[in-house]
Design brief:
mainly alpha, 249 residues, 8 helices
């Protein structure tokens, strides 16, 4: 995606990644349960929804982050279904699955970094602090979503949904502190923070939807997390409008 369509990496951005993870967790479960499409047709539908966004983005000269966040949510929704399929249908051991996914995130993240350096002759991070968002970036983001779903499920099962949500929230705060101390200049820390945010979002999303104490249910949790995410997206767009890069490419 072009620079005019990607957000600045700041507190609002990380809040958006977390809320997109919560929303994507709930939406992914709701989509799987209510669509009746099955894993492969369901993922194909999500892919068909994603591809036009990348095409439209190339022809849209206005500065906003709508395309980026829509793709983030769709990818997160698909990641939830992929993770559930691998865990509960294919029955891949969760530890092995987490290790493979972590390796894939590192591989795709490194691939995007090298691609940016070789083709664009630019630093590995854009002027807004985000790794260049080429195909490897989105593959890494998909891997992070699947990874977060699997590890979030493991943490919720071992510690309980409420405890896991709180504990992972603390871990996310520590990751953000590490990211701030690096001034957002190290790509590995960016992807570490994304992975922790995805994991935290999974635990929180499942807690909201499944907790008997909260008693929201999946549909209500999906609506609430979606509204929270949309509200933050509007705030992000207002901030983005005041800090648009001069070069649209």
């Amino acid at each position: 995606m072009r620079r005019i369509h990607v957000p600045q990496v700041n507190g609002i951005y990380w809040g958006g990644i977390l809320l997109a993870s919560v929303f994507g967790t709930n939406l992914g479960d709701y989509y799987a349960h209510e669509s009746g499409l099955g894993i492969i047709p369901g993922l194909l539908v999500l892919a068909f929804l994603t591809l036009p966004l990348f095409i439209l983005e190339r022809f849209d000269g206005s500065a906003h982050t709508l395309y980026y966040w829509l793709v983030i949510v769709i990818i997160r929704t698909g990641a939830t279904n992929i993770a559930d399929y691998l865990q509960f249908r294919v029955r891949v051991p969760q530890l092995r699955l987490c290790l493979v996914l972590a390796a894939l995130i590192a591989l795709f993240g490194y691939w995007q970094q090298r691609l940016s350096a070789n083709l664009n002759q630019r630093p590995s991070l854009t002027s807004v602090g985000l790794p260049d968002s080429g195909p490897p970036y989105w593959l890494a983001m998909l891997g992070a979503g699947v990874f977060g779903t699997v590890l979030g499920d493991v943490c919720s099962h071992v510690f309980g949904q409420g405890t896991a949500s709180i504990g992972l929230g603390v871990l996310l705060a520590l990751s953000l502190t590490l990211w701030r101390h690096s001034w957002g200049a190290i790509v590995a820390i960016y992807w570490l923070t994304v992975a922790v945010a995805r994991t935290t979002g999974t635990a929180i999303g499942d807690w909201l939807a499944e907790s008997k104490d909260l008693n929201f249910g999946l549909a209500a949790a999906t609506v609430m997390s979606g509204i929270a995410f949309a509200g933050l997206l509007l705030l992000s767009q207002r901030r983005q409008a005041t800090a648009t890069p001069s070069n649209p490419d």
